[in-house]
Amino acid sequence: MSDNTKDNSAFSNRDEQIRWVTTPVSLDKLRITSGHEKAANQLVPIILNALKTAGKVIFAAGGESGTGKSEIAYLVGEILQKQSVSTVAWSFDNAYLTRPEEREEKRAQDYDNHVGLNEMNRSKIEEVISCFEQNKSVNVPIVVINADGSRPILEVTLDMQARKVLIFDGLYAALIGEIKTDTSKTTRIIAMNAKKFNLDAQKERGKEAVNEHRLKVLERECHAVRSLWPYVTHKITEDWKVSAYTHN
Length: 248
Fold this sequence. Notes:
Blueprint: E1 2-4, E2 18-22, E3 29-33, H1 34-54, E4 57-62, H2 69-82, E5 87-91, H3 100-109, H4 111-114, H5 122-133, E6 138-143, E7 153-158, E8 165-169, E9 187-193, H6 199-205, H7 212-226, E10 234-236, E11 242-244
Parallel strand pairs: 4-8, 4-9, 5-8, 9-10
Antiparallel strand pairs: 1-2, 2-3, 6-7, 10-11
């Protein structure tokens, strides 16, 4: 993956190193800080420990918009690969039932009924999980984020053969906690960032225009994300510490 240089002047008052990464297929831009690295370095031993007994692990990084879930998922995969643990990854940004253009039209018409967990393609998520458990390849959509704002969709094949860890990221990644398969033979580690959505991070990454419509969508997305806490196994705190999540 290639590193992109970007003006960091908006963050010059922060005592942290920042690097930008552009993912090779979707072209999504990740803003990686020492905090993300701190969390990822704590999550990897948890995954490795689970592999000792489970053989296969599904790791999901969820959380509200702009809280670093994509960055953490990327780093976990990077660290595991360096330790010769074979991984495969798919973002929940690609797991919606509708294309980006159609989805935005529906959201604008009715925020309450067209923003939330009902937007997710659960059957495709279940198929990806099942194929991972059975070492079978699976075709999945990937939304490409172009510089001109267009978002074409590619179909790619995820090679599951001999993969040890399946990595998900996305707003609703914790949804895997309620998706069952006929061959459930994996340990699921679901990490959620406790931070509230970060508007500055939204603007800095420049993925979507931050306007009144987007703010209404964010409000409803955050409500849906918070409904998934019952499925979380590990919590990431404001200062990037990872701990087992206790359900009260």
